[in-house]
Amino acid sequence: KLTSLALQPVITPELVQGRVHLKCTYSRPSSKLPLQYVVVWSRLSTLGKKDQIQRDTTLQSFSYIEMNGINLRLGDTVFCTVMAFTKDSPEQQSLPEESKGFYAGIKFLPESLQIAEDGKEHVLTILSTVPIACPGHDDSCKITLQLSIEDLGKNSQLLGPPNVALSACQVDLLRAPCSGSSCAAATLTVTAVTDFAQDGNRVSRIRAELVGWRDPLWRAYTPKDVKVTVRDLPTGNCYSFTDPHIITFDGWRYDNYKIGTFLLCRSTWRAFEVHVRQWDCGGHRSTTACNCGVAAR
Q1: Boundaries of each VWFD domain copy (predicted)?
Q2: Angle at CA 40, nearest 5°, toward 36 and 44?
Q3: Structural domains in the chain plus CATH codes
């Protein structure tokens, strides 16, 4: 009897005659019996069930299915299940072995972000798990994605624009040899906008839309959004007032009665500094200075 044969099916993407296919490959057991294989392809439905879309019987140690945009579309999670049997006893099949789910489409890594209003840049990778076909000689082998940000808060209109900034509004996924789970990839950075407002933690989403793509397989496809949670951080303040008394961000207090132009504040990690000019504003009896000008970069 055939029991578990450790067939270990794996799904990989492949271009066949310029069309996107998925290939299910499995190990041939070291059995002397001439084996045949039943390969069942299925996709995950919106209800979380697996719908069978194709069933093959083959002598080969692989099976193909085309992503035709009808019964198998971009955005689907696909499985292949393999059973083996001998020609003499087709009713006695080995135990079914299922592959890991293969997500066919565009992925964001990480799939969600939790960032803070601290100026740090967070790398977001966009990749296609399936190869990009060139529809013609005039078209370059790439997919262009237009990125946008939408605030998901209840009071988003009152809070103003989303406090998430991207390093690019458009990215190109250039075709490359498939390696691991990536057949094309691009990166950008995501930063929380320091808005000096105590507006609490805000949730936004990054959306990606395909631009100018004529292939029917890609045209009807919209990648999943990326959820970005921005943690609000308290804002620091510093002061220089009257003759002048100075209070720093961390609450230190001191005086500077001198006349001249001074560097009041400079960031150690971004292009931000404040200069202050002080003139004599005291009488004959006291030496004191007052702020008369300020410049900020």
Answers
A1: 236-297
A2: 160
A3: 10-103 (2.60.40.10), 106-231 (2.60.40.10), 239-296 (no CATH)
